[in-house]
Amino acid sequence: MLAATNLEVVYDDVMLVLRGVSLEVPQGRIVALLGANGAGKSTLLRAISGLLDMHGGEVSRGAITLDGEPIHHLDPSRIAALGIKQVMEGRRIFTELTVEENLRVGGHVKPRSLKVNLDRTYQLFPVLADRRRKIAGYLSGGEQQMLAIGRALMSDPRYLLMDEPSLGLAPMVVQQIRDVIVDINAAGTTVLLVEQNAAMALAIAEHGYVLENGAMVMDKPAADLLADGDVREFYLGLGAEGASRSFRDVKHYRRRKRWLS
Question: What is the value of pTM for the model shown?
């Protein structure tokens, strides 16, 4: 199990971004993490991946553990070697390399499994196989996101941390990404999914968390979060009867979130 316990993260020795955050990601599950912009979701993923230092952050209290062993003191390469990989927000592909070169970069951790993992990635994303020799910078936004996910999968991770994989994508592509996440999980990879598309995330997750202002404010099975009135209004834009609410109504609701009052 991957877990964070009473985690506090500080940036530049001054700014407290995460405040006593606890989260559990059991092996084999999809866990969703919801929250507005600036809530601290990406910071939590960086803390797990060991990437805080390059952003001026550090774990000041609490622990991150994998199978009961602390990992928050390890460097990113060691954490990756333990089977934790992150798909960052914004894709972060190598735009001047070809599709296959990008994938091979992701496979350097397990060179002996390179061909097997490459074939598996092409099976998940046939469009990448068709474009394997194309320069990655010329791919569409959806194809670049598929490439970013595929590159992370090239190391055959135990845990895949996904930061806003549907951001800025067309609805049809979002559906494709959703289906791939389900397939990845069915093949044995555990997924921690950070998403503002709450409906998509909670539809495929078994458990969900809501992070607001650096603190966990909800921790429930995904089905219970989908049925929760506050979550439906704030994250799904739905009223009590399930009808869509206007932007004005939702904006007003965001100023009076009941769980923070």
Answer: 0.90
